[in-house]
Known about the structure:
Blueprint: H1 2-21, E1 37-42, E2 47-54, E3 58-65, E4 73-82, E5 85-96, E6 102-112, E7 117-121, E8 124-131, E9 138-146
Antiparallel strand pairs: 1-2, 1-9, 2-3, 3-4, 4-5, 5-6, 7-8, 8-9
Amino acid sequence: MKNKLFLISGLLMLLSFVTISCKKDKTSAGSPDVLTGGWEEVPQKAYSRRLSFSLGGKFSMQIRDQSNQYWSNEVIGQYSISGDRLIVNISSNLEKSSTGKIITNTPINYVLFENGKFNIDNHVLSVNYTTYPADAPIPTVAKFNQFIPID
Length: 151
């Protein structure tokens, strides 16, 4: 009887150990990197852009005409960083009504911030990238203030 009790308690301990050690890693979506969070373009222009970098390499950029209180477009995709290099691949474009309701969700495939390099100084993200306004490459810089959460 003692042997059975000892065997059962040993199996329960072993089962408990196996169950605890096999839990999924809660950080599987990735750890925060230096870009994780929200950023808003400065200075404000005729339109503004708000960037969001999330865990797991998720990216979104909302675009709003200054005459409209709602974000009229949003592009969604994935991002990665390597040193000071920023790679953003866009996969979806959401067009929204003046009330914020999604009108269309169009699958797309393009690279945002081509040849992008970034740095952060005093909570300001600077992205240096290439644009082609007249079919000639032009070095471009965009600056974004970091949203700082208040707890």
